[in-house]
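#random but structural
TW: two for the price of one
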Amino acid sequence: MIHHAPLDNVRIVLSHTSHPGNIGGSARAMKTMGLSSLYLVNPKSFPDNEANVRATNARDILDQAVICSTLDIALQNCVLAVAMTARARDLTHQVLDTRRAAQKLIEIATESPVALVFGRESAGLTTAEVTKCQLTVHIPANPAYASLNLAAAVQIMCYELRMAAIDPENQSPRHEAQQLASLNEIELFYQHLEQALITSKFLDPQQPKRLMQRIRRLFSRTTLEKEEVNILRGIIHALEKEKP
């Protein structure tokens, strides 16, 4: 028997999609694999008839798609976000292949919302968008011709997610001792930490280099629990109260 709950907890997030046909194609790819939660960050043209045509019998996915002005809004209440990337980046988070990324997403999705984030057709995700995710996934396409259509990439990942969801080993809840922190809570922690570093003069906002990017990469190596984020913020509060 197929366990559908994890797939219901997976959001497919398309950021700044240029071609409405790719939105429709993505909706069709999702429905064929049992996913239904589509989030669109500033699409160039949506709603659009071309999206409807490409979606064929997946119009219901488009009708219930959530349009967001920022990636932060699209990731609200999620505890894990995985970024699709087509190229190596400096200071990137841990890179997984499609199978391992899908297994990780489904593992967490048995209990909490997760997101798989796709970027622009021409340039992919920005560095700022990638840093809001904890993991990255790369489709090992032919290096001689690695040009993969957005909707096709969505189809590949939706297939991997479905295969992970119907694997009996992935259908048991995680039974975490503590509730995982949401990405919103982690983002507030980063903002709090950055302000504290600026106040203490450890971080020069005029010459930040890539300190916060390195710190984000450091914490992305673990799945932070809500209580752990509260402890970290409590430490910052205590240090802020200290008089020089």
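TW: number two ↓
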Amino acid sequence: MALTPLSEALERILATVEIKPDWEMVVLEAAPSRYCAETIDATLSVPPADNSAMDGYAVASRDVPGALTISQRVPAGHAPVPLEAGTAARIFTGAEIPAGADAIILQEDAEAGAGQVTLPAAQPGQHIRRRGSDIQPGDELVAAGHRLTPQDIGLLASAGLYAVPVFRPLNVAVLTTGDELREPGSGDLDPGQIFNSNRFSLAAQIRVLGMNVIDCGNLPDDPDQIGEALERAAAEADCIVTAGGVSVGEEDHVKSQIEQRGALDLWKLAIKPGKPLAFGQVAGTPIFGLPGNPVSAFITFALVATPWLVKRQGGQPSPMQRFPVRAAFSITRPGTREEFLRVRLTGSGEALRASLTGSQSSGVMTSLSEADGLAVIAPGTTVAEGDWVEVMPLWAL
């Protein structure tokens, strides 16, 4: 089977998403990282009335400069009375502007005495936040499919909402395979064993997306056990993610079990790391079979599984962000696959540079943990120090 370019693989995989999850109403406290089920428009103005942007004095600009009697005190949260002609109102940040006032003069520009204050000239509208200057009725606050951030929660609260419609989170089954894997905390390693990192990193990637993890543990390299575990996962999950067992070795059984118990739609990507990726379905449930090497598993999940999961969750997969950076490394031998190199960013502006974080082996997790992004190197390309390269920030993956 020929290697599939990443762009083509994404187009094919995303085209398989045909349904969205059910939705529910949740209070704002429970809404962060959930995906909005419908567009939310404002029903009121924010701020609801003209208010003061500063501590000071509310005046009619025609009455200053000069000395004015202080006719009222207006703290935030208290309704003012109309401003008496030729007077000033002591006012505080966020307080509603009295009718008849059209300017705020800062307290540090005033000379206050016993019941009076001497004020400089003022321009109409200065230091006043106008009604609806932030939000007006009918403004779109959050689009359908948007993943709610903490700042979105604050915005919705400022518009008077206490609950929002969100899609129910997907249930994603995670299953790793390998006789050599030992769970962290289970004791010392025996000869030939390594600790299972994929089970933890993949579950973390799923939870960061706001989805639920069904932990299916680790399976030995036994085809029957793997196949039965895949069918159990298919019965309770919206999607299955596996790590290991999709290459061409004699102990790689996940790929064959997908084919025997469902269908394989895609295998082998033209990327490095991450070539042996499988996508298909088991008993009607979509499955991503990721490579077993931990860096490969992380990167293929981020590049391929994440966009599909976001779309299946009812969200809007964003184009993968890339920005140009000067290379502080060189590549003298062009590759045949699109390559994603782990890089650290240093400097700023024109001096921003991307340096390799160390070994680019697909089993070296330190180089991934220390990276700020992935430098994307096209097939057949060489790089000299100082050349522009495109970098995908890890925080956006």
